Amino acid sequence: MSYNDQDLFLQEMEGVAPLKSRPKADLKKNQAETPGQALRRKAAQAELNDPNFLSLDNPKRVQPYDHLEYKRSGVQEGVFKKMRLGKYDIEARLDLHNHTAAEARQAVFDFINDCKKHELRSLIINHGRGLNSNPPAIIKSYVNTWLREMDQVLCFHTALKFHGGSAALYVVLRKSEREKLENRERHAKRTA
């Protein structure tokens, strides 16, 4: 009697039952949302609905004692000089000491928009020097970047020493449409 390899294999396997297979991964979705998932979903939805466009990514880095200045094109040199010399009455102040970058971002956004809403134009923002922050001057760097991103900001400059020096900025906002109209009417009466 001669056996071939297949016959030998079948003889050895006689009485052996195959193992029942089961899925290697549980593919059923967990219906209950975990607290972490709920927080992430809420944060993502808030980010999508957030009107605050100011970025927390890579601000232009400045040093604690750097003097900052910015002027949009079209701003008259006389307006910029008057602001730079602290000759405008300060109508509103914002102090960012002890704020995280995220808190400062929201505070600056809200402050500028509130000032615009109330037609306040001459502001001061005290951002601090950031000598003890890591990296140094992080809030100052962010404020320098954020103000350039906001259309309502015409110009800003490091404040004079008695207003905070390199730890603060004078800021001038655009005129409201109502203020522009009043200005045009006032100047029209002068020429008539």
Automatic annotation (TrEMBL):
Residues 19-42 are annotated as: Disordered. One of its GO terms (molecular function) is DNA endonuclease activity. Residues 94-174 form the Smr domain. Gene3D superfamilies: 3.30.1370.110. It comes from the Bacteria. Pfam families: Smr. Coiled coil: none annotated. InterPro entries: Endonuc_SmrA, Smr_dom, Smr_dom_sf. This is DNA mismatch repair protein MutS. The lineage of its organism: Bacteria, Pseudomonadati, Pseudomonadota, Gammaproteobacteria, Oceanospirillales.
